[in-house]
Amino acid sequence: MRWGLRCRKPCLSLLLKNGKMDKRSGLAKAGQLFDQLLNVLAILAGIIVSFITIAVCVGIVSRYVFNYPISWVVEICEYGLLYITFLVAAWVLIQEQHVSVDLVYGRLSPRNQSIASIFTSLAAAIVFLIITFYGFKVTKRQFDTKYFTPTILEAPKFAVTLIIPVGSFLLLIQIIRKICRHMKELTKPHGSQSEKGKDGLQIEP
Q1: What pTM was estimated for this model as a whole?
Q2: Are 183 and 204 in contact (CB under 8 A)?
Q3: Which stretches of 65-188 are DSSP H helices?
Q4: 3-class state of residue 200 by DSSP
Protein backbone atom coordinates (compact mmCIF):
# COMPACT_ATOMS: atom_id res chain seq x y z
CA MET A 1 0.00 0.00 0.00
CA ARG A 2 2.84 2.38 0.81
CA TRP A 3 4.40 1.70 -2.54
CA GLY A 4 1.09 2.50 -4.24
CA LEU A 5 0.81 5.81 -2.41
CA ARG A 6 4.36 6.71 -3.31
CA CYS A 7 3.69 5.93 -6.95
CA ARG A 8 0.63 8.14 -7.17
CA LYS A 9 2.43 11.37 -6.24
CA PRO A 10 5.05 11.23 -9.03
CA CYS A 11 2.36 10.15 -11.51
CA LEU A 12 0.11 13.04 -10.47
CA SER A 13 2.95 15.55 -10.69
CA LEU A 14 3.90 14.16 -14.11
CA LEU A 15 0.32 14.58 -15.34
CA LEU A 16 0.18 18.17 -14.06
CA LYS A 17 3.51 18.93 -15.66
CA ASN A 18 2.41 17.48 -18.99
CA GLY A 19 -0.81 19.48 -18.77
CA LYS A 20 1.12 22.69 -18.27
CA MET A 21 3.44 21.84 -21.14
CA ASP A 22 0.47 21.14 -23.43
CA LYS A 23 -1.11 24.43 -22.42
CA ARG A 24 2.10 26.34 -23.10
CA SER A 25 2.60 24.63 -26.45
CA GLY A 26 -1.03 25.43 -27.34
CA LEU A 27 -0.52 29.11 -26.50
CA ALA A 28 2.73 29.15 -28.46
CA LYS A 29 1.01 27.68 -31.53
CA ALA A 30 -1.85 30.16 -31.21
CA GLY A 31 0.68 32.98 -30.94
CA GLN A 32 2.50 31.77 -34.05
CA LEU A 33 -0.76 31.57 -36.02
CA PHE A 34 -1.68 35.07 -34.88
CA ASP A 35 1.75 36.36 -35.96
CA GLN A 36 1.32 34.72 -39.37
CA LEU A 37 -2.10 36.36 -39.72
CA LEU A 38 -0.59 39.77 -38.96
CA ASN A 39 2.19 39.14 -41.49
CA VAL A 40 -0.41 38.35 -44.17
CA LEU A 41 -2.34 41.52 -43.32
CA ALA A 42 0.90 43.55 -43.49
CA ILE A 43 1.55 42.14 -46.98
CA LEU A 44 -2.03 43.02 -47.95
CA ALA A 45 -1.44 46.57 -46.69
CA GLY A 46 1.70 46.74 -48.84
CA ILE A 47 -0.34 45.69 -51.88
CA ILE A 48 -2.86 48.43 -51.13
CA VAL A 49 -0.03 50.98 -50.87
CA SER A 50 1.25 49.88 -54.28
CA PHE A 51 -2.25 50.13 -55.76
CA ILE A 52 -2.76 53.63 -54.33
CA THR A 53 0.59 54.77 -55.73
CA ILE A 54 -0.25 53.46 -59.20
CA ALA A 55 -3.81 54.85 -59.06
CA VAL A 56 -2.61 58.34 -58.11
CA CYS A 57 0.00 58.34 -60.88
CA VAL A 58 -2.54 57.15 -63.45
CA GLY A 59 -5.03 59.75 -62.22
CA ILE A 60 -2.51 62.59 -62.57
CA VAL A 61 -1.48 61.50 -66.09
CA SER A 62 -5.09 61.03 -67.11
CA ARG A 63 -6.10 64.47 -65.84
CA TYR A 64 -3.21 66.63 -67.06
CA VAL A 65 -2.11 64.75 -70.16
CA PHE A 66 -5.33 63.35 -71.61
CA ASN A 67 -7.68 65.85 -69.92
CA TYR A 68 -9.75 62.94 -68.64
CA PRO A 69 -9.98 62.94 -64.81
CA ILE A 70 -10.70 59.64 -63.11
CA SER A 71 -13.34 60.50 -60.56
CA TRP A 72 -12.98 57.47 -58.27
CA VAL A 73 -9.22 57.78 -57.58
CA VAL A 74 -9.45 60.14 -54.60
CA GLU A 75 -12.27 58.18 -52.97
CA ILE A 76 -10.61 54.78 -53.36
CA CYS A 77 -7.35 56.20 -51.99
CA GLU A 78 -9.18 57.47 -48.90
CA TYR A 79 -10.58 54.01 -48.24
CA GLY A 80 -7.19 52.45 -48.89
CA LEU A 81 -5.45 54.70 -46.38
CA LEU A 82 -8.06 53.79 -43.77
CA TYR A 83 -7.52 50.08 -44.41
CA ILE A 84 -3.73 50.40 -44.34
CA THR A 85 -3.84 52.06 -40.92
CA PHE A 86 -5.83 49.32 -39.21
CA LEU A 87 -4.37 46.38 -41.14
CA VAL A 88 -0.85 47.03 -39.85
CA ALA A 89 -1.57 48.52 -36.41
CA ALA A 90 -1.08 45.24 -34.51
CA TRP A 91 1.89 44.22 -36.70
CA VAL A 92 3.63 47.52 -36.00
CA LEU A 93 3.11 46.95 -32.26
CA ILE A 94 4.91 43.61 -32.51
CA GLN A 95 7.85 45.45 -34.08
CA GLU A 96 7.66 48.11 -31.31
CA GLN A 97 7.62 50.79 -34.02
CA HIS A 98 4.68 52.89 -32.85
CA VAL A 99 5.54 56.51 -32.14
CA SER A 100 6.36 56.96 -28.45
CA VAL A 101 7.95 59.55 -26.18
CA ASP A 102 10.69 57.79 -24.19
CA LEU A 103 12.28 60.81 -22.51
CA VAL A 104 11.34 59.44 -19.07
CA TYR A 105 10.87 55.81 -20.05
CA GLY A 106 14.46 55.47 -21.25
CA ARG A 107 15.81 56.54 -17.86
CA LEU A 108 13.94 53.83 -15.94
CA SER A 109 15.36 50.48 -14.93
CA PRO A 110 14.25 47.40 -16.94
CA ARG A 111 11.86 46.38 -14.16
CA ASN A 112 10.29 49.84 -13.93
CA GLN A 113 10.06 49.94 -17.72
CA SER A 114 8.03 46.73 -17.63
CA ILE A 115 5.76 48.19 -14.94
CA ALA A 116 5.25 51.40 -16.94
CA SER A 117 4.55 49.39 -20.09
CA ILE A 118 1.90 47.36 -18.26
CA PHE A 119 0.03 50.48 -17.10
CA THR A 120 0.20 52.21 -20.50
CA SER A 121 -0.84 48.99 -22.24
CA LEU A 122 -3.80 48.59 -19.87
CA ALA A 123 -4.95 52.10 -20.75
CA ALA A 124 -4.56 51.35 -24.47
CA ALA A 125 -6.44 48.05 -24.05
CA ILE A 126 -9.41 49.86 -22.50
CA VAL A 127 -9.48 52.38 -25.35
CA PHE A 128 -9.37 49.77 -28.10
CA LEU A 129 -11.88 47.58 -26.29
CA ILE A 130 -14.33 50.48 -26.46
CA ILE A 131 -13.49 51.15 -30.13
CA THR A 132 -13.94 47.46 -30.96
CA PHE A 133 -17.30 47.19 -29.20
CA TYR A 134 -18.87 50.33 -30.61
CA GLY A 135 -17.18 49.83 -33.98
CA PHE A 136 -18.87 46.46 -34.47
CA LYS A 137 -22.11 47.94 -33.20
CA VAL A 138 -22.04 50.80 -35.72
CA THR A 139 -20.94 48.49 -38.55
CA LYS A 140 -23.82 46.10 -37.85
CA ARG A 141 -26.28 49.00 -37.87
CA GLN A 142 -24.93 50.18 -41.23
CA PHE A 143 -25.23 46.64 -42.61
CA ASP A 144 -28.80 46.24 -41.35
CA THR A 145 -29.92 49.61 -42.76
CA LYS A 146 -28.08 48.99 -46.08
CA TYR A 147 -26.54 52.45 -45.93
CA PHE A 148 -24.40 53.50 -48.90
CA THR A 149 -21.90 56.36 -49.05
CA PRO A 150 -23.30 59.42 -50.88
CA THR A 151 -20.27 59.50 -53.19
CA ILE A 152 -19.33 58.53 -56.73
CA LEU A 153 -18.68 54.87 -55.92
CA GLU A 154 -21.69 54.57 -53.60
CA ALA A 155 -19.88 51.92 -51.61
CA PRO A 156 -21.69 50.09 -48.80
CA LYS A 157 -20.77 51.98 -45.65
CA PHE A 158 -20.28 48.86 -43.51
CA ALA A 159 -17.53 47.65 -45.87
CA VAL A 160 -15.65 50.90 -45.28
CA THR A 161 -15.98 51.01 -41.51
CA LEU A 162 -15.63 47.26 -40.86
CA ILE A 163 -11.83 47.49 -40.83
CA ILE A 164 -11.94 49.83 -37.81
CA PRO A 165 -13.34 47.32 -35.27
CA VAL A 166 -11.48 44.41 -36.88
CA GLY A 167 -8.13 46.20 -36.75
CA SER A 168 -8.84 47.46 -33.24
CA PHE A 169 -9.65 43.92 -32.10
CA LEU A 170 -6.38 42.57 -33.50
CA LEU A 171 -4.50 45.42 -31.84
CA LEU A 172 -6.30 44.67 -28.57
CA ILE A 173 -5.13 41.05 -28.71
CA GLN A 174 -1.54 42.14 -29.33
CA ILE A 175 -1.74 44.62 -26.43
CA ILE A 176 -2.90 41.81 -24.13
CA ARG A 177 0.00 39.66 -25.32
CA LYS A 178 2.36 42.53 -24.57
CA ILE A 179 0.95 42.87 -21.05
CA CYS A 180 1.38 39.12 -20.46
CA ARG A 181 4.97 39.29 -21.69
CA HIS A 182 5.86 42.15 -19.35
CA MET A 183 4.14 40.44 -16.41
CA LYS A 184 6.16 37.30 -17.14
CA GLU A 185 9.35 39.37 -17.16
CA LEU A 186 8.46 40.83 -13.76
CA THR A 187 8.04 37.36 -12.24
CA LYS A 188 11.41 36.14 -13.51
CA PRO A 189 14.54 36.37 -11.36
CA HIS A 190 16.56 39.54 -11.79
CA GLY A 191 18.91 39.41 -14.76
CA SER A 192 17.28 36.47 -16.49
CA GLN A 193 16.69 36.71 -20.20
CA SER A 194 13.36 36.52 -21.98
CA GLU A 195 12.14 33.10 -23.04
CA LYS A 196 13.17 32.31 -26.58
CA GLY A 197 12.17 29.72 -29.08
CA LYS A 198 14.29 27.57 -31.34
CA ASP A 199 14.61 30.29 -33.94
CA GLY A 200 15.70 32.87 -31.35
CA LEU A 201 12.48 34.83 -31.56
CA GLN A 202 10.75 35.87 -28.37
CA ILE A 203 7.70 33.76 -27.62
CA GLU A 204 4.62 35.64 -26.41
CA PRO A 205 1.54 33.99 -24.94
Answers
A1: 0.75
A2: no
A3: 73-87, 89-94, 110-145, 157-161, 163-187
A4: coil
